Amino acid sequence: MNRDSLLAQIGWLCAALGLALILTILVAWPAGAPPLETIYVLFKGGVGSMAKIGRVLAGWVPLTLCAVGLLVPFTARLWNIGVEGQVIMGAIFCTAALRPYDEGGALQIALAIGAAMLGGALWALLAGLLRVFGRVHEIFSGLGLNFVALGVTLWLIFGPWKRPGVASMSGTQPLDVSLWLPRLGKLSVSWVGLALAVGATLFVYILLYRTKWGLKMRAVGENPKAATLFSLGPRRRLLQAFMICGAFAGLAGATQVLGVYHRLLPAISSNYGYTALLVGMMASFRLPLVPFICLFFAILNVGSIQLPLQLGLDSSLSGVIQGVMVLSLFIVQGLRLWLRQRKETD
User: Span 107-125, mean pLDDT?
Assistant: First the structure.
């Protein structure tokens, strides 16, 4: 990736954000929401205090883990829609690994993290096997497995893992404090989670851009038939891509259990898997942009809590703004391609 192409991409991204601002104003005005004040409240609600910044970073960690993981299968032109279910399955495996312990420490936490990555990888492998050998498109298999993972979660919470004497949407029995990820000072984010997210980003960068494996993966994505002729093992590499992405999604599930909710909840994924897909599209699947867009989305998610409190608006408006931003990106990219084709024609 050369510097000029990255700068050009940033420029077009800024153009998309400008268009998104205009479209947000058009969407918010009929709803009776003062557009500029709405945006101000959103951002102030996300970065207005150290406590809010801590919540933003706590959301940034799992979102970044999912988003950078998605870059691996996309390199092979695969859409791992099932990343949402892989987050859930990672959370399930993490909880299962800790159930034998009433208390613990670093060893038990490491065991739970490893189990979560295994759970996410195995769930992704199932989607990969359906894609490679069953010829089931990964979009359909991924969506189906997402619903299955959610169903397994509900069965566990209301069945075998229900809290003593009660089964409710509040989730399983809370973990002992000794099994929580250590926090960063007084903030609600764990420094271990931050380190894992940064480490995952560096790992994916090295894997995709500094190894032969990444080069061969790009070749598989560009031309699977040629990859087969040159004995690059496209089937094996596609399965590996699914498993790596699933492992990072499972790790995101572990950070939710160990660092945020400290139990298994029905909504443990917080829709980070689906949001990560939006992040990837906004970044055009370019790794350097992903962490910053994840931070932007995390600010919107945390700031949306203030909309009903200060403006009497529904907090789902932040989701509308996210969708408008992705739509704006598609419009700008379409304009970019049209200008390029016109230039080549001239």
Answer: 97
Residues 76 and 281: their CA atoms lie apart, in Å, by: 15
Closest residue by Cα to residue 52 from 303, 261, 281, 341:
303
**Do residues 268 and 62 lie in contact, with contact meaning Cβ atoms separated by under 8 Å?**
no
Q: What is the pLDDT of residue 2?
A: 43
Going by the DSSP 8-state scheme, the letter that residue 145 receives in this structure is H
Give the burial string for 158-171 (b: 16+ CB within 10 Å, else e).
eeebeeeeeeeeeb
Joined together, the tokens standing for residue 164 give 């003593």
Q: Quick check: 156 and 167 in contact, CB under 8 A?
A: no
- Residue reference for tokens 């996210």: 322
Rounded Cα–Cα distance for residues 74 and 276 (Å): 12
- N- to C-terminal Cα distance for the chain? 27
C-alpha distances (whole Å) from 192 to each of 23, 136, 198, 294 are 38, 37, 10, 18
Q: What angle do CA 36, 294, 184 make, to 5 degrees?
A: 105
- Under a CB-based contact definition with an 8 Å cutoff, are residues 80 and 138 in contact? yes
Question: What angle is formed at CA 105 by the lines to CA 100 and CA 107, rounded to 5 degrees?
Answer: 80
Q: How many angstroms from the chain centroid is the CA of residue 110?
A: 21
How far apart CA 268 and CA 237 sit, in angstroms, is 30
Contacts with 340 (C-beta within 8 Å, 6 or more apart), sequence order: none
Give the closest residue to 35 by CA, choosing from 25, 50, 45. 25
Residue 328 sits at φ, ψ, to 5 deg, of -60, -40
- Quote the pTM value: 0.87
Give the per-residue pLDDT at 41. Answer: 79
Structure confidence by residue, pLDDT tens digits, 288-338: 889 998 998 898 888 877 777 776 666 666 677 777 777 777 787 778 778
DSSP code at position 262: S
pLDDT tens for residues 208-259? 999 988 888 888 777 666 555 545 567 888 899 999 999 999 999 999 999 9
List all residues 6 or more positions away from 291 whose beta carbon is below 8 Å from its beta carbon.
Answer: 60, 64, 68, 197, 201
Collect all residues with Cβ–Cβ distance below 8 Å to 315 and sequence separation of at least 6.
304, 305, 307, 308
Across 9-134, the runs of DSSP E, i.e. the strands, are none
